[in-house]
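Re: your question about Polymerase/histidinol phosphatase N-terminal domain-containing protein

S., sorry for the slow reply, the queue was backed up all week. Below is exactly what I fed in.
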Amino acid sequence: MGKNNMKLATITLVITMITCGFGSLITFADSQKFDGKYVAGDFHTHTYLTDGNKTQIEVVQKAFKNYGLDWMANSEHGGTSSRDPLGNSFTIPNNTTVTSLWRWITLKDYSFPIIQKLQKQYTDKVLLQGLEWNVPTHEHASVSILGNSVNPISDFEYMFDENDKDTSRAVENIKKVNKTHADAVAGAKWLQTNYKNSSYFILNHPSRKLKYSIKDIRDFNNAAPDVCFGMEGFPGHQKEVERGGYTSTDSKAETYGGADYMTAKVGGLWDALLGEGRRFWIFVNSDFHDSSDTADFWPGEYAKSYTYVRENTAQGIVYEKMYNYKKKVAFAAFF
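Result:
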């Protein structure tokens, strides 16, 4: 199938998802009849703390004040952090400079305190602490666990992130589970078992490196149906020449009209999952790193993911994803 046809297919798929693809859906017009509303969000953003080039304060301000998002998640790479939140080298006690810190540590000591402070500043918005999980033997995924404690997401990163090689917590009897596909499924199952109604695991840029197969996705969805229920059907980095940052010459690892091949291909992976009766949604995100002319759009500037909620709270948004999953309510991805 040529790129022009793929683009047309992409548009058709999105319209179908919103209007009639899943049976009894709630459209924007229908939503006026219910005690709820659609809220716009982005759960894939980065700052200086990993490989971004802005502070968390700058990213949040642009997302909420300039581009109208109702909620957002900070979801930086697992493994290590090479810079502090201002882009400088880390300085630990005794004024010792270090080149990097393990991500489970920076989640606790750097990122989450900033998120908590910003939550108090933007009381009418929802700001989540997330993680871009290096899924063992696969690619990236966005993960978040709600609550007033950072310990669950920090522990998850330590245990399950493929790039986290730290073993210092063995004395706490916390084991590493981060080498195989089975370990990745175990990570999904851990979320389902412990945080069924308060977490999500969504595949990022799923075709970029061709490291997710339909079998893999079935395994994740089977292990964690209330947690692993979607993918970035329209990935971030839409400002790049190769939209989405998909630079492969393999046609299955390119974007078509900005859509991941798994979304764009009629009768392809996404269609197959839906045909099996799975409620597996597509989302858009910025994957924001840098705002230069050839880099990224700010969160909400180019694309927004809409979720129908009854309350615009962190629990409301994440729970509604699970609730909508069961009630056949559509998630809408708009450019």
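Residues 40 and 70 are 5 Å apart (CA to CA). Residues 3-19+37-334 form a domain with the TIM Barrel fold (CATH 3.20.20.140).

Happy to talk it through on Thursday.
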